[in-house]
Write a structure and sequence with these properties.
This protein is mainly β. The chain folds into two domains: 200 residues, no CATH class; 35 residues, no CATH class. The protein contains no helices and 20 strands. The chain is globular.
Length: 244
Amino acid sequence: MATVESTEDPGDHADGTSITLNMPSTRPDGNLYLAFVGCDGTGETIAETTTSAWTKIGQTSRGVCTLALFAMVGSSAAATYTFGTTSSQHIRATVMRISGTWASADAVSYVSENSGASRTSAPAPAKTNAYPTSLIIRAWVCDADIFTATAPTGHTLQFEDASDGVSCITMAIATSTTAGDTSGSATIGGSFSDGFSIMTVEVESATTVVLSGTAISGGVLESEIVSGGETIIATATGAEVTPA
């Protein structure tokens, strides 16, 4: 299972159409970076506006807020990046650095769920067919002034929004302590009562498999099946290779 090395807090942003995301001070090439960006409006399109370095994995607008997920493999990563919204909103963001050497952002996928409004707990959905070595991340963004998160059972709270009573958009990020485990809903609790957008994110392991002198990157070795004298390697990206 991949290791989360750091989670950065760039601070709140008042009403506006952009937020500057501060990257970790240590930014090794090849590491995987995940940016979670949320705002307190629906129908918004959240985008990275500085460069084309980030791949947008997806976004969800649920309840009364929007949550977007971006991924980037480090290559001389900048110290800051800017993310924008369609219209003026309260915006919140955080970035995670995950160690390892990654081939692409294709190792990242997600599923979202509508939590509704005025809740005091919020379940993140299970992600079916998760690979047994994957890192599982749960992300919540809440349209609330005050937010005190309680990590779900079997999870470590990586990031909790500073409750300042001003921002009107708050966020929490938690990771499962068991690789590949998305069984059932991971429910965050705490001090809040408002609408949510929620994601369960799967990060496949960064492993390179070498077959007959050919490197196959970006997947994790899931199984090795010997049949009729041939070895078939199945990777997390779905590739199957039969050596000559």
